[in-house]
Amino acid sequence: MTVRYCNASVADIQPDPPVLPPAPCPDALRTGGVVTSVDVAGTLLSLGETYRIVTNDLLARGGDFYESFAEACARAGNFCEDTLMLDAPMDEFENASPVTRSVEGRLVAQ
Fold first, then answer.
1. For 52-98, what is each residue's pLDDT tens digit?
2. Domain extents in the chain
3. Alphabetically, which GO biological process terms does the record hold (predicted)?
């Protein structure tokens, strides 16, 4: 099974065999698909909802084969260039202090 995650500072996950660009996965999040669930803040992702994410400008512009990010960012009002990626966690620290941490089990291998 090939699993692909966004780049993370603590992980370097490579597909096996390496495929560039990665093959599309039309069955993700569908019955019998390769991704069986995704949750956002403890709530299952809803395909009918709109979600905002924070990413770096490389991925936002479609780098590393994330063309879907570039397509979404190209829509009017979807890409804010005057806010740095660092601003999002800093705002969270200011608004939710004191900040606590815990193991959340975000990546689970079965």
1. 777 787 888 888 777 877 888 788 877 777 777 778 778 888 888 88
2. 1-79
3. nucleotide catabolic process
